Amino acid sequence: MLLGPPGAGKGTQAQVIASHLSAPAISTGDIFRANVSGRTELGTKAKAYMDAGDLVPDEITVAMVKDRLAEPDAKAGFLLDGFPRTIAQAEQLRDSLAELGNGLDCVLELVVDEDELVRRLSSRRMLVDGEWVQRDDDKPETVRHRLHVYREQTAPLSGFYEGEGLLARIDAIGSVEEVTARALEALGRTPGSVPAPQDGE
Ligand code: ADP
Q1: 4 lines ligand 1 (CB under 6 A)
Q2: pLDDT by residue (tens digit) across 86-129?
Q3: How far apart are CA 30 and CA 58, in angstroms?
Q4: Which residues are CB-neighbours of 81 under 8 A, at least 6 positions away?
Q5: CA distances from 85 to 19, 73, 131, 158 (A)
Q6: Is the C-beta atom of 13 inside 6 A of ligand 1?
């Protein structure tokens, strides 16, 4: 699982690391955004919270993640990005994984100072239908609120997972490749190494 504040680069690193691990990257933010653009019932429920920079309530988020983890591609392993984001979510995740005889192997925290986060988020643009657009929640006042929510509700997960012996912290300032190399090292993988074949393959 990847832990870190908005703008730390979790989404970018999740894609690269997941492909090294041959496991799906599961991003709650991406699932919510897909539901908002698809105008689904879940998207309608989540949109107001997201636009305000607040967390979507735990019961909505946890149910959504449980469904996603039950899909066949997550059977052999997965990389979580943006979940859990509260201690309550972390406890519910631990319980539902334990029911399956499973658990998290590692929590990788991406460490970036707040000045750098504000710089990255306010200049971030996404390509949508051939045009560069700013995410609604990347507006300066919403960015400040998201960082506040992170400090209050999500940062305590660092201590929670340290207590469980699962936490590895890496410096997430530098090029994408440099951060990936530190991440793979922390996960015990050399960059470029091929994941070990699974039994029966
Ligand atoms: P970032 O990490 O840049 O804030 P995300 O794409 O992870 O962006 O999340 C965007 C928004 O989606 C959050 O501000 C929040 O409203 C909602 N969200 C994503 N993951 C969760 C979660 N685990 N619990 C509650 N809300 C979430």
Answers
A1: no
A2: 999 999 999 999 988 889 999 999 999 999 999 999 898 988 88
A3: 16
A4: 1, 2, 10, 11, 14, 25, 26, 27, 28, 29, 30
A5: 23, 23, 31, 10
A6: no
